[in-house]
From TrEMBL:
One of its GO terms (cellular component) is cytosol. This is DNA polymerase IV. The lineage of its organism: Bacteria, Pseudomonadati, Bacteroidota, Flavobacteriia, Flavobacteriales. It comes from the Bacteria. Residues 10-190 form the UmuC domain. Keywords: Cytoplasm, DNA damage, DNA repair, DNA replication, DNA-binding, DNA-directed DNA polymerase, Magnesium, Metal-binding, Mutator protein, Nucleotidyltransferase, Transferase. It comes from Tenacibaculum pelagium. Monomer. The record marks 19 as: Substrate discrimination. PANTHER family: DNA POLYMERASE KAPPA, DNA REPAIR POLYMERASE UMUC / TRANSFERASE FAMILY MEMBER. Its main location: cytoplasm. It catalyses: DNA(n) + a 2'-deoxyribonucleoside 5'-triphosphate = DNA(n+1) + diphosphate.
Length: 360
């Protein structure tokens, strides 16, 4: 089984240090400085870091304490998600000028299928360049892009010339590119699987490609077929426009760890109010309620219950939340609580696909 035409033309656009860049945009005094969005030098976790901060090893999901230790002059700013959503909406409007086949992955990245596009431009690379230029001219923010025949390769490519760059992997270059790619860069290969592959002497795509389908199936079960295909450039996941949201959540990290369930209920009451607001705003209902608990030692636990019918209002789901809290004894003091809805009443719509002449 080898890579065969017809191919699609996929762009992955990834904003550069998006949250931090928006903060620097709105506050010019932060330009050129090491900025961390979220967290603090006392508590919390960094949501995003400017490139100036990344030079010192500051990364997202890092504790504020460690971030400050790595970068003593780090400036912490609180996140402003409404502002990020506002900017993200403007970026997506630019995308929609070129194609309706846009699949947002988050506020700062998206896939675009430009095989057939509104501009009649047969060059996906030129479209990516134009989109990035427009984002800069209209919003004064930088973006990087990857262009190739499927989502997986485009996403990997977008990281190659970051920040403020792009990379095209042409059809004829896909196989050599994948053969040189470290296995931990492959879609679906996490840290545990990568470690297992390394122990088996599999370090690159070429090493992986040498394994037969039978061998990979024995070693990795059902995932073996996926690894067999993806190293050959076969990844047929389509760009899904208007991506269906799988869950809606609200959570809070506390300044002080909570040990009393009375205080936890007080915080959960406020979190439930926020979740109800988000459910109403998105006109969404759900069946599965999940309580997320993160302890002071950073271990995490979730407890879920599925109701018989779709619900949305706090008065409907808050009793379930309380039931989940008392379901079993807490292991430690609590630093974060969250409530989420999944199993939502959203419907999936499949796009129509048309193959045009291929020209990168």
């Amino acid at each position: 089984m080898e890579l065969q035409p017809p191919y699609r033309k996929i762009i992955h656009v990834d904003m550069d240090a998006f949250y931090a860049s928006v903060e620097q945009l709105d506050n010019p005094g932060l330009i050129g400085k090491a900025v961390a969005v979220g967290g603090s030098e006392i508590r919390g976790v960094v949501s995003a870091a400017s490139y100036e901060a990344r030079k010192f090893g500051v990364r997202s999901a890092m504790s504020g304490v460690l971030a400050k230790r790595k970068c003593p002059h780090l400036i912490f700013v609180p996140p402003r998600y409404d502002r990020y959503k506002e900017i993200s909406s403007k970026i997506r409007k630019i995308f929609y000028d070129y194609t309706d086949l846009v699949e947002p992955l988050s506020l700062d990245e998206a896939y675009l299928d430009v095989t057939e596009n509104k501009k009649g431009n047969t060059s996906a690379s030129m479209i990516a360049q134009e989109i990035r230029q427009r984002i800069w001219e209209e919003l004064k923010l930088r973006a990087s892009a990857g262009i190739s025949i499927n989502k997986f390769i485009a996403k990997v490519a977008s990281d190659i010339n970051k920040p403020n760059g792009q990379k095209t992997i042409n059809p004829e270059d896909v196989i050599p590119f994948l053969e040189e790619l470290p296995v931990n860069k492959f879609y679906g290969v996490g840290k545990v699987t990568a470690a297992k592959m390394h122990n088996l002497g599999i370090f690159t795509g070429l090493d992986l490609k040498k394994k037969s389908l039978e061998e990979l199936s024995v070693l990795f079960g059902k995932s073996g077929v996926h690894y067999f295909n993806i190293v050959r450039g076969i990844h047929n996941s389509k760009v899904k426009p208007n991506r269906v949201r799988k869950s809606i959540a609200a959570e809070r990290t506390f300044n002080e760890n909570l040990s009393s369930e009375v205080f936890m209920l007080d915080r959960l009451d406020k979190i439930a109010e926020e979740l109800e607001r988000r459910m109403k705003k998105s006109n969404t209902k759900g069946k599965t309620v999940t309580l997320k608990i993160k302890y002071s030692d950073f271990t995490q636990q979730t407890r879920s219950k599925t109701t018989n019918h779709y619900i949305q209002l706090k008065k409907e789901f808050y009793p379930v939340v309380k039931e989940l809290l008392y379901q079993e004894k807490l292991k430690n003091s609590v630093r974060l609580l969250g409530i989420s809805f999944s199993n939502l009443n959203t419907e999936k719509k499949d796009p129509i696909w048309v193959q045009l002449k291929f020209d990168f």
